[in-house]
Amino acid sequence: MMGFTGRSGKTDTPLAGKDALFLDLDGVIYRGPDPIDYAVESINQTALPVAYLTNNASRTPEQVADQLRGYGLELVPEHVVTSPQAAVALLKTMIPAASTVLVVGGEGLLREIAEAGFSITTSADDEPVAVVQGFSPEVGWPQLAEGSFAIQRDPSVVWVATNTDWTIPVQRGVAPGNGALVSAVHLAVGRLATFAGKPERAMFDVAARRMAVSTPLMVGDRLDTDIKGARAAGISSAVVLTGIDQAKQILAAGEDQRPDYILQDLRQLHLPYPEIIRSVDRDDVHTVEVGKAVVRRKGHVVRVARAGEKIDLLRAGAACIYDSGLKIFGLDVDPALYSDKG
Ligand SMILES: [Mg+2]
């Protein structure tokens, strides 16, 4: 936990000692069609190589790169890592080269599978050795049924899904995502798919290999995909509060979803990360100070002693709770740590 190293920790920026920046897209760079404040200029400010990691399996890297360039980012399609690419990397470790693969999904997935040298089919009658499933708005019952038949044909048939996202937010509301479509097949075949996208480590491995880097920082807005995946891949992570997860989720995060850094917005990538100062007194009161914020824990009771900056208060609260070794439901946490007021 690099961000929480105590008194000896230096006040480096979160990017100090890193050799690349890995970024999630939605909730980090844009929200809906709108760019998030400070994101583009903060990304352009770094001299490190940048990779963009997306679970979205329906768009090609070119389409993603075009969208990001529209916001003012400088990148080529090779800087975009998609869940279909992670699925291909997984498939290569599971089935022989040039095997026949049944594809349930869209253009992005079809192209990656073809470029990897696999032979593509849409029929279970061709006896594919693997089924790969990704989201596309065109996927309907016939494709889901063919996939199910192919998987049932033989227990040795490999089933890889690009990502587990249960829902996708679209213009008119929330719609079923790839996880829901995979679940439909699961109900038919009684088996579980192997997943490739975040929070599995395949995408991080693909990105690190392609860019030839070893100490990246992953920045995302979701603990259950971005942060969990980075941790599974053994790389540092920062959660940024411009998207889905907020103070409440961060304080409650399970051990495998805890970020090294907590950022208000991407400008803080370039600012010294404050020292996390810990102490314990003789009454067994544990104190964590971050900037002017002070949080104390005695037993299962966590209280704000001094508020300070809101982001520092969250950093102190998270460190105090994570240090406790106690589950969030066993703690009495001061609501001032996660309330929206102030
Ligand atoms: Mg996101």
TrEMBL record:
One GO cellular component term noted in the UniProt record for this chain: cytoplasm
GO terms for MF: phosphatase activity
Leader sequence segment: none
Classification via InterPro entries: HAD-like_sf, HAD-SF_hydro_IA, HAD-SF_hydro_IIA, HAD_sf
Xref: Pfam families: Hydrolase_6, Hydrolase_like
Gene3D superfamilies, A to Z: HAD superfamily/HAD-like (3.40.50.1000)
Membrane-spanning intervals of the chain: none
NCBIfam families in the cross-refs: HAD-SF-IA-v1, HAD-SF-IIA
Protein's name in the database: Glycerol 3-phosphate phosphatase
Species of the source: Pontimonas salivibrio
